Amino acid sequence: MLKAIQILGCSSGFISQRLKKPHSGNGFSLISSKTSYNSTPKSLSFRVIRMFSTPSQSNSDAPSSSSSSVAVHLAGNVRKIKFCQWCGGPAKHEIPDGEEKIRAICTLCGKIAYQNPKMVVGCLIEHDRKILLCKRNIEPSLGLWTLPAGYLEIGESAAEGAIRETWEEAGAEVEVISPFAQLDIPLIGQQTYVIFLAKLKKPQFSPGPESSECCLFEVDDIPFDSLAFSSIFVTLNLYIEDVKSGKVKFHYGTINKRLGTGPSDIRAFTLDYHLQV
Ligand SMILES: [Zn+2]
C-alpha cells in the first residue's frame, strides 16, 4: 500500500512493501580542463577553467592525482584483506609474479584477491524543466540531497541499474534518455559514477526506504548547500551549465578529492581531465 504518491512537487511518504530490499579520443572534444571549487560556491560560482593543453600538463599541478598517491592508497586497501574469500585461509600480501601491485594472496589455495573499483549508477531526471532529488534517509550524508543512485549489481547493465536505483529510492519509473556523465573518483572509495539523463514514465514518485523525501527542483532552486556528495555537486553543476548554454552534453571527468579532507566536505576537490562531447 502506498502511503504517498506525489504527482508533482515533493513527497515525503515512506513506502516499503512496494519496493525490493535496498542495497546498502574519438568524438570527445580535445579539451583537458581543470575545475576548481573554493569554499563558497553557489550554483553560479561553479568555475570551469578549460585549458587547451595535454592531459599530462593538466594533471601536473593536481597534487592529489599523482600516481604515487594512488598506488599508496590502493596498497592500503589491499592490506585490509586478512582471509581468503574462497577457502578462508590466511592471506599474505605480496606482489605476484608478473604484476606490479601488492595483492592479497591466499597462503592455502594460492588464489589472488583482486580489488577493483565499484560502479555507482544513477539518474538525473528531468521533468517539466525540473530535476528530481532525494533526501537521504540513511548514512552517509543523512538528510542531504542526492540524485537517485547506487551500486551496480552483478548481472545488470548500467542503465538497468540506474533505473532500478531510481525505483528503489524515488519510487519513480523512468526511461533512460542518454548517458550524461562518467565521473571517476580514484582517491576516495575507488568509484566510478555513471549518471544517465532520464524522464519519468509516469508523473509520479514517492520516497523509498533510503529516502525521507523526494522533490522536483527548479534549476535555480537546487539546494547546493545541502548536497550529499561531490559527484552530485559536479553532476548538477555540469547540467546547469549545459542547460544555460542550450546544449546538454556528455561529460567525463576525474574528481580528485583533496587529501586530508573528509567525505562531508563535498567541495574539497578538483575536477580533472574534463572531456565533453
Ligand atoms: Zn584460499
TrEMBL record:
CDD domains on file: NUDIX_Hydrolase (cd04511)
Required cofactor names: Mg(2+)
Molecular function via GO: FAD diphosphatase activity
Source taxon at top rank: Eukaryota
InterPro entries referenced in this protein's UniProt entry, alphabetically: Nudix_hydrolase, NUDIX_hydrolase-like_dom_sf, NUDIX_hydrolase_CS, NUDIX_hydrolase_dom, Nudix_N
Keyword terms of this UniProt record: Hydrolase, Magnesium
Domain called Nudix hydrolase: residue spans: 116-240
Record family assignment: Belongs to the Nudix hydrolase family.
PANTHER family reported in the protein's UniProt record: NUDIX HYDROLASE 23, NUDIX HYDROLASE 23, CHLOROPLASTIC
Protein name (database record): Nudix hydrolase domain-containing protein
Naturally occurring in which organism (per UniProt): Gossypium raimondii (Peruvian cotton)
